[in-house]
Give the backbone structure.
Amino acid sequence: MAQEPEYDVIIAGGGMAGLLAAASVGFYSKQNARVLVVDRNPATEPGRKTAMGWTCGDATSRASLDYLAKHIGIRYSSPEVEHPVEGVLLFSPDHQTKILFEGEGVLLNRKPLARRQVEDAKRLGVEFAFGVEIDALYAEGGWIRGVAGRNRDGSVFRKAARVVVDASGSATRLRRNIPIDCKIENELDRDDLEIAGRYIFDFERGVDDRTWFDPRHAIIHFDQNLAPGGYCWTFPKGENKVNIGLGLQRSGLDATNRRFGRKETLPVLLDKYVRTNKAIRNPVPSSGDPDRGNVRGAWQVPVRRQNDCLVANGYALIGDAAWMPRPIDGGGIGPAIYASVIVGRVIAGALEAKDTSEAGLWGYNAEYMRSYGYPMASFEVLRALLQTLTNEQISYGMRHFLSEEDVAHVIRREHPEFDRTRGLNPLLWLRVLAEPGLAKGLRYTARKSQALIAHNLGFPEAPGGWQDWKRGLDKELGDARRRFKVKPMGSIQRSQVGV
């Protein structure tokens, strides 16, 4: 018989996803659940992601913040909200074509945001244990029963709970070494993990070129030379302040370096991108108090669909630990917000029902998939296609094959259909014939994405149907992986695209 646990819920990790999940459990349980957040950071630096600070692109949609406010009553303003934007502009490598997506959004300041989130959670009855490094889960009878680790002074930390929520990041030891049999995937493929770096700069305005800096829009640049297999970003935090960075695929960088005899690294490419930006002159690290200790940083980002199962007996995954950032742009704040609201509601219901088994927590799986996660596998396929393309092909495709209807799909976070690749008039035929492999690859991606979305919207409502669903998913994705075996830019020939 398991010992009565000290806590109903332990959240391992006090970042964005962990703090919001804790607040959500407190809200939906009407503060009747005893919730503990365990974080390796000191109480003076909550939410710090790495030794280099609160590393993040800092952008999220207004819709995500509205979802949080609507469901658990948490609203943000200054100083945690630093700058509003009208949307995200994605530019082709030649800067001639742009796509507006996401709608209105904001740039956050993650340092004061984390402090605010701690206070929100405390008001909802959440307790905290700072300065604790969690090393492992412990189990009994096929159930996760608690966490074990070390306090800052080296002493043993061990606490029991009815549910452990793993919010300890993409490199979490807990998921990799889960001590029970379950459906959760343990390891992430190397090519599904990108490395990212960014600066927060104050600067003087250079050339007035809104393809490089626009205080009203967050900007994403596709460029396979500067960010192989990834993208660059210039996100305004004011008229003369910017979060500027890039994310890239390690294997893409390795292949490009081999082909051209280079030894470029993430910092080298990031500095090159800053120098290339003609709208930014004399950049210096931001000197404001909210940015102290957070002006530069590097981190890793999972860029595939979320884990195919998010729960086990007494255990749930969230945020980067669950591989939730969107595959196409690495954005993790929106997914963390949606997932935290859902997991809190489901856990509160499971505690009330006295059923924190896999089946009792399964509603988190199903609701997250239906509300936010269903298109992520399709974006994984689109990412795989993009990683096989040259800058010239990306620019050509965005200019000639992307319609207004496709842009509308992107704004709604749906997959574009690329109808223009079907060449139903002579002009379109000429465009298709100029890049037949690219057109074929886009058509295939659209069809595959529709199949994946339909499949994921049929995610099972109970664990019993999961194996059949998983086999179907693996079949669809396996076909796409074979077709778009990623050979990063620099080693790929045009004839290999879409064949």
Remarks:
- The longest strand covers residues 193-205.
- The radius of gyration is 23 Å.
